[in-house]
Amino acid sequence: MANDSYHRLLHREYTDDSGSELLNEDADMRKYVNDPIHGYIGLSPTALQFIDTPQFQRLRYLKQMGSSYFVFPGASHNRFEHCVGTSYLASSVVQSFMQRQPELEITKRDLYCVTLAGLCHDLGHGPFSHVFDNEFIPRALPGVSWSHEQGSEMMLKHTIDQNNIDIDDSDILFIKQLIRGSVSGAPDEKMFLFDIVANKRNGVDVDKFDYIQRDCYNVGVKSSYDFSRLMLNSRVIDDEVCYSHKEAYNLTEMFHTRYSLHKRVYSHRAAKGIEYMIVDAMTIANPVLNIAGAVYDPNLYQGLTDDVLRDIERSREPELQEARDIISRIYTRDIYKFVDEFIMPADLSSIANRKHINEAAIVGFRADGDDFVEHDILINFSRKHFGMGSENPVDHIKFYSKFKINEKFSIPSEMISMCMPQKYQERIVRIFTRSPQKRRQIQNAVRRLIAQISTRIQSNSENTMSPASLTPNRGLTIPDDIEDMAKKRRLDFSTK
Fold this sequence. Notes:
This protein is mostly helical. It has helices at 4-13, 45-51, 54-57, 79-100, 108-120, 130-140, 148-162, 169-180, 206-219, 227-232, 248-266, 269-289, 298-301, 308-314, 321-331, 359-363, 439-459, 482-494, and strands at residues 31-35, 39-43, 234-237, 240-244, 337-344, 377-385, 399-400, 425-433. Helix 6 (130-140) crosses helix 12 (269-289).
């Protein structure tokens, strides 16, 4: 395993001269689970107080990668094991600092709170993970700002109350702040502790260490960065987690791997089409099942998992027939289809937005004989980046050298590699359709709209952007006989 060396060093560092383990709370009462990413993980009685609850066990029924499981069969892992892995890494990092830098005066309370923050950071995820808070909630509760982090805070309090877990209010507040990665309102806490679970400074945290490695492992994507080296070569300087200068390229690879997963896996065209189907089904069912209302009631939220699709299927209410039909289409692979996409330069954000590219605008470019309507069209505006928008996240990381381990400094990108990207963010407009038989019509209309936008760019003398950037991708052009080709493939398959 890639991080075996880290486990061996961890064992040496966390033992005293007599060989007894330091900081090992009730060692003889620990339980161990064998994790495919981290090996054997010891679960302390403190962690088990939270794990052995209905609220935490709910995470077994939330797919870590949401709708991607319908495309990548290996993506069957859940938020449960991710949270256990994140907690293990969070605890390991803090204990490493305690051993190697006693001057930090890290307390058992610090270790306790950071470990629980890692364990409980995803308690608030809804069905199909980010599909719920990024797509469903904005449609079901327009104008309401809600995130899974808020859900995690709600469910953390609910878990503690319902299971009579003895924990101070000040610790609960600290754990919530660690989950948010917010240092506001925590002037008496050690600021570097906020870099561990949800790092808002530069994005290097154990949450990413776990989910990047776990997702790559399960979907079969090779990862070229090594998180165990990052953990071994980190130390706290001036209240900030810093890394050895030797890890600069390793960190670059971590952010590139994150981008690659978003590009190739998380936003896969078929997975995105299925995601829209799940959102449609839940939106139709919402007035009957009150799915969105659960975000205000932890008792309802506790029962809200990916099984909501099965709840809709099992229902007999006539109002849910349309939702049941959509779910049936997922199983029979009659999914919403990808139509087209355009990568928009960042300086065209004033044009590449919903004001200019929307369902009504596309319908306005229908040709004679086209019969698609606005409801047939789905438009997705997204940004793909390395973790910090248009900026290189490595520019926000501080490093140290082996010669002066208590002095931190930045490393410019050109000193890491001359082959570094020149841009770290892309804006993508993608078009999908609920009616696969109309995708050729819709693509033609979309491209006529984009051609008009390109003409507008050319006529703008202040804009030096080449209109070639909006040229349609020939590889995505849908042939006129697409339906005949699909029928032929089905016929060829059925005769084999």
